[in-house]
Structures are given as structure tokens and as C-alpha cells.
């Protein structure tokens, strides 16, 4: 027996009695917690990687709205906007955000890495009048000795706090988010956290090489017990070279972060949310083994604004060999509504430059 798809109980803060519109949400939450308490170590409760599967198994005939209510009624799980945003010190924030300074920048692009990746992937990226902000997650580069985080929502909240701590949310320079694969999941969640907790919306969200969030349920797990299988899968996708795969020192450097990120994806539970106000650009490729190109257009449901998508030739890591083409295309999109020297001439657009004297 299904439940009507009312959004009210999941999209705003309401008393528990109002959750009756979501049917068995509260009873199922209590039942899951009771069961997990019998098998989980003391203090762990329902915080285990089977949480998403448990909820989905009990809610096959219940709306996505009810699923969210069940999740939020589990101890320790509440709506983002029911809590005050965490405050991060600027020194801590700078560990999360590596900045490539650019004078007179009109845009800041925040780049989120793929699973197991780090800020190095984006260090060669260069956009005119754009300051690059590279996200560095725990467990890589200078943060190698820090344990990788395995919850995408916690990661998103940390990054949102970092962006606030360095003053970007109050700056006149708008933010553009770019995330590839795992980074697309995190960047989307960061945009939602900023909307819910900080009343901030980025200028543009660009997602690349990633299954839309609402379509992730039922997909094969990324985590596997055999490390060699993990390395082989990354090699097959083009994420590393054969030489890197054979080098144990290199593998030992990225494997802990990769395993942490994969676990975060496997634990991820999709929460239906209001569409973002910012435009979304979705990029895909025609030979990606993990993201069928026809699914790229499904990202449209996550924005109430403009949506564009484009399919490039290549596999999952098409960004590297096509770096110049991708940068040129992204530039044409994010600058098309901005006048002045940084705006790019596009077919069908007449750009007025107030600094140019005829």
C-alpha cells in the first residue's frame, strides 16, 4: 500500500505528528533501530553501511518522501536545516580548499575530485578570469595521514563550512562547482547544504561522469574485498596507467582514499530534495562503462533553472585527453550570461562590452 507523495514533511521542519502523511515512517524507523541495536556493537546503533539497503527493503511501495522521513527519524539523522551550520576555523578550511590565485577574477570555480583522486587532477586547468579552488579531501597529498571520510553528507557539510570560513559565501565573486564522478555527488550535496543552511546558491553546478543521484539505488557496489580487483577496475576505466598499477608504492598512496570514497558511495542513501535554483550542466561520454550516456540528461530534475548536457567521445576519464575541449565548452557556458572582456562570443549572442568605445 503506497503513500501519497507529499513533499511537505520532508522539505520543511514540522512536528512529528505531521509525519502521519508519510504513513509508517516513524514505526519503521523505530523497528530498524531496534533490530540494529541487537546486532550492532554498543554505540553504533543504525550507523552501518547496510542502513540504505535496510530502508529500501522496507519501503518498496512507499514514496521517496516516506523514505526520507524514515531515515530522518533514525537516531542521529535529521534534516540539514534543523541544525545550525558548523563553524570552521580559517586555518582548517585552507586544508580543504587549495587556491590558484588569479587577479581580477570574475568567477571562482570549485573543483571536486573523483573517487580516490586529489587536487592534482585539476592543477593544469586554467580558465580566463577564473580563480581555481581545488578541494583536497582527507587521505591524500598533504592530508595523507588523515583518515578518509566515508560519509558523503559529512564530507559535503565540511566543504560547505570551509567555503563559509574563507569568506567565499559573502564575496561578490560567484562560485561555480565542478565535480567529476564521486565529485559530482559531493558537489551536488554541497550545493544543497549551502541552500538549506547558508541561504547561498552557486552560479552554476557542473556534474561530469556520474549517474544522477536518484538513479543510484540498485547499482553494483564499488567496494570489493580484493585490492587487486579495485586497481584493475580503475585501470580498465583509464583512471591510472599500467605502470602506475604495477608500482606498489604508487598504489599504496591512493588505495586508502579510493576505498574510503567507494565505501562512501556504497553507503549513500538518496534523499529527495527541492531542485536547486542554479543552472546545471551535465557532461558525459559515449564509452563510459559505468554511466550510460542517455542517463546524463536525467540530471535535469535537480535544477529549477536552465539545464544543458553534452556527450564527449571517450571513457569515464574523458576529461584528461579532452582537457582543452572541455575547458573551452565549460567557459562558453558559464560566461555566456556575463558581459565584458571575459564573456565568450557564441553563435546567436551579441555581447555588449561597456569598456569598449566605438
Automatic annotation (TrEMBL):
Broad class of enzyme this protein falls into: hydrolase
GO terms for biological process, alphabetical: lipid biosynthetic process
Pfam families linked: Thioesterase (PF00975)
The keyword Ribosomal protein appears for this protein: no
Transmembrane segments: none
Family: Belongs to the thioesterase family.
Protein name (Swiss-Prot/TrEMBL): Fatty acid-ACP thioesterase
Amino acid at each position: 500500500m503506497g503513500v501519497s507523495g507529499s513533499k511537505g514533511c520532508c522539505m520543511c521542519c514540522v512536528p512529528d505528528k505531521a509525519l502521519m502523511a508519510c504513513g509508517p515512517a516513524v514505526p519503521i524507523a523505530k523497528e530498524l533501530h531496534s533490530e540494529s541495536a541487537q546486532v550492532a556493537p554498543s554505540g553504533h546503533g543504525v550507523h552501518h553501511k547496510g542502513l540504505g539497503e535496510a530502508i529500501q527493503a522496507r519501503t518498496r511501495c512507499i514514496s521517496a518522501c516516506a523514505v526520507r522521513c524514515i531515515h530522518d527519524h533514525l537516531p542521529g539523522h535529521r534534516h540539514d536545516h534543523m541544525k545550525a551550520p558548523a563553524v570552521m576555523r580559517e586555518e582548517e578550511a585552507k586544508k580543504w580548499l587549495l587556491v590558484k590565485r588569479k587577479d581580477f577574477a570574475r568567477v571562482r570555480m570549485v573543483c571536486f575530485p573523483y573517487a580516490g583522486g586529489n587536487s592534482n587532477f585539476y592543477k593544469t586547468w586554467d580558465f580566463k578570469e577564473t580563480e581555481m579552488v581545488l578541494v583536497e579531501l582527507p587521505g591524500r597529498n598533504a592530508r595523507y595521514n588523515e583518515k578518509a571520510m566515508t560519509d558523503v553528507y559529512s564530507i559535503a557539510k565540511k566543504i560547505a563550512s570551509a567555503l563559509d570560513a574563507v569568506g567565499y559565501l559573502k564575496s561578490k565573486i560567484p562560485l561555480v562547482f565542478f565535480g567529476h564522478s564521486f565529485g559530482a555527488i559531493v558537489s551536488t550535496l554541497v550545493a544543497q547544504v549551502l541552500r538549506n543552511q547558508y541561504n547561498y546558491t552557486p552560479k552554476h553546478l557542473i556534474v561530469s561522469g556520474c549517474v544522477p543521484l536518484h538513479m543510484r539505488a540498485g547499482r553494483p557496489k564499488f567496494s570489493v574485498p580484493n585490492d587487486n580487483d579495485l586497481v584493475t577496475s580503475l585501470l580498465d576505466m583509464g583512471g591510472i596507467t599500467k605502470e602506475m598499477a604495477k608500482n606498489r608504492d604508487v598504489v599504496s598512496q591512493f588505495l586508502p582514499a579510493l576505498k574510503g570514497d567507494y565505501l562512501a558511495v556504497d553507503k549513500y542513501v538518496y534523499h529527495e530534495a527541492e531542485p536547486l535554483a542554479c543552472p546545471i550542466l551535465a557532461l558525459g561520454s559515449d564509452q563510459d562503462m559505468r554511466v550510460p550516456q542517455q542517463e546524463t540528461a536525467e540530471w535535469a530534475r535537480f535544477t529549477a533553472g536552465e539545464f544543458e548536457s553534452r556527450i564527449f567521445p571517450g571513457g569515464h576519464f574523458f576529461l584528461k585527453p579532452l582537457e582543452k575541449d572541455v575547458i573551452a565548452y565549460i567557459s562558453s557556458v558559464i560566461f555566456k550570461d556575463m558581459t565584458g572582456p571575459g564573456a565568450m562570443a557564441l553563435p546567436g549572442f551579441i555581447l555588449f562590452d561597456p569598456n569598449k568605445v566605438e
